[in-house]
């Protein structure tokens, strides 16, 4: 009996131990609890997933020059706002003075340490894209259902397209428009310029507004290379054709340059070409500020210069002959071809160039003008007067003219010098306009053949 009892006790103990190890799917009441266990296990797994520590944010390096000299705090604020909206991305940025920027960037790229994202002016963009240094954003953009290119003014967005590939995005821009002295117009009863004006209407108004006895000129534009390529575009001309062949001595270009000279030498509505006064730095700006020029083509960066003028003034689109054409000086943001953080870089590029928060910070700080298309987003900019017609600045983007860097962007400086040399000869009457442009055509063709 004792032996039998011992066996029974051992069996009982083993059963208890077994029960402690597992309830075999039964609850304390002997009911099946397999569903409950499964639910608890799933719940625990979900909890573990949701409580997994967040991945460390990726860091992208950004090199910039436009913030230098007064907008460093604006940049800092924009970066902080971006990081708040995108906690998975950190931005390590460096501000470099413009004079040192190209050297700094070239050194980094040569050393295999290119920043993930960086600024480039349009002319340098063409050079860097031609050297295959930039990331093709086209696949990323195509996959981004939240992105709409129409957020930007179309021609401004297309400016950073290279050979059919979107290689950057316009960050900000400046352009040139027609400034006019409303008081001088009112005194002569002349209608203000509007978008319908051509060179003919400009000349008609200038002849009425010019007052030689009081030293007042009807209209003014500088005579130099940048004005040349914009003015010939207003007459349907250009420096290159669609295939990249120089067309400098086309008849449209000859007529346009003659018009530039005739305003001074034939119609006497502009200062004489040999007027040393207007060859001095800021002489034209000072003359307008003094009420001595009725109309002038100036860059929008001069708005602040004229804010305290003692007369009323405003801006309008520039008159063209066969079409409108306006300068477009753009800074864009591009990505390094070697970046390992393409998605993060694209988030940053979108925010920095078009997000309403970013745009508002730029406008409030008076930093630069983004090339966005939404008037509601730009409303704060439009309200910063003078000038009253601030929207003209954005409207000019519909007829922008890109710097004609041509098929060899690295020769841009030499191209300018070659054309300028001949324009100066025509300006002072040493040779005819046709001879000057024939010479320039040959010089540029020779330059591109090397």
UniProtKB/TrEMBL annotation:
Residues 24-54 are annotated as: Disordered. Keywords: Cell membrane, Lipoprotein, Membrane, Palmitate, Signal. It comes from the Bacteria. Residues 1-19 form the signal peptide. Residues 24-48 have a biased composition (Low complexity). Pfam families: SBP_bac_1. The keyword Signal applies. This is Carbohydrate ABC transporter substrate-binding protein (CUT1 family).
């Amino acid at each position: 009996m004792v032996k039998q009892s011992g066996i029974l006790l051992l069996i009982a103990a083993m059963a208890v131990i077994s029960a402690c190890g597992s309830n075999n799917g039964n609850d304390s009441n002997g009911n099946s609890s397999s569903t409950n266990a499964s639910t608890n296990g799933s719940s625990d797994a979900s909890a573990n997933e949701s409580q997994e520590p967040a991945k460390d944010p990726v860091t992208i390096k950004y090199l910039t020059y436009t913030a230098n000299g007064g907008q460093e705090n604006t940049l800092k604020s924009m970066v902080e706002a971006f990081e708040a909206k995108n906690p998975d991305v950190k931005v390590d940025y460096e501000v470099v003075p413009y004079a040192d920027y190209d050297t700094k960037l070239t050194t980094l790229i040569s050393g295999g340490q290119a920043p993930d994202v960086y600024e480039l002016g349009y002319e340098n963009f063409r050079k860097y894209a031609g050297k295959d240094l930039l990331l093709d954003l086209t696949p990323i953009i195509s996959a981004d259902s939240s992105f709409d290119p129409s957020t930007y003014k179309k021609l401004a967005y297309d400016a950073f397209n290279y050979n059919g590939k979107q290689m950057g995005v316009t960050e900000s821009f400046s352009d040139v428009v027609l400034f006019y002295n409303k008081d001088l117009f009112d005194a002569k009863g002349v209608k203000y310029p509007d978008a319908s004006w051509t060179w003919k209407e400009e000349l008609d108004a200038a002849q009425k507004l010019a007052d030689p006895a009081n030293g007042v000129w009807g209209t003014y534009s500088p005579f130099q290379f940048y004005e040349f390529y914009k003015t010939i575009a207003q007459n349907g001309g250009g420096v290159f054709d669609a295939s990249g062949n120089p067309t400098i001595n086309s008849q449209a270009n000859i007529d346009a340059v003659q018009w530039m000279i005739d305003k001074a030498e034939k119609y006497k509505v502009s200062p004489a070409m040999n007027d040393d006064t207007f060859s001095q730095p800021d002489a034209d700006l000072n003359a307008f500020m003094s009420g001595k020029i009725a109309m002038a083509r100036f860059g929008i960066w001069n708005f602040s210069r004229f804010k305290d003028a003692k007369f009323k003034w405003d801006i309008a689109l520039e008159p063209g002959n066969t079409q409108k054409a306006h300068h477009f000086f753009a800074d864009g943001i591009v990505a390094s071809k070697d970046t390992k953080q393409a998605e993060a870089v694209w988030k940053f590029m979108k925010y920095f160039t078009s997000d309403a928060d970013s745009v508002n910070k730029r406008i409030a700080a008076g930093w630069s003008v983004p090339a966005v298309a939404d008037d509601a987003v730009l409303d704060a900019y439009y309200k910063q007067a003078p000038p009253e017609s601030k929207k003209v600045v954005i409207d000019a983007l519909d007829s922008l003219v890109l710097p004609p860097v041509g098929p060899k962007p690295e020769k841009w400086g030499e191209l300018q010098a070659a054309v300028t040399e001949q324009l100066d000869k025509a300006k002072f009457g040493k040779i005819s306009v046709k001879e000057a442009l024939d010479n320039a055509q040959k010089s540029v063709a020779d330059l591109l053949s090397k």
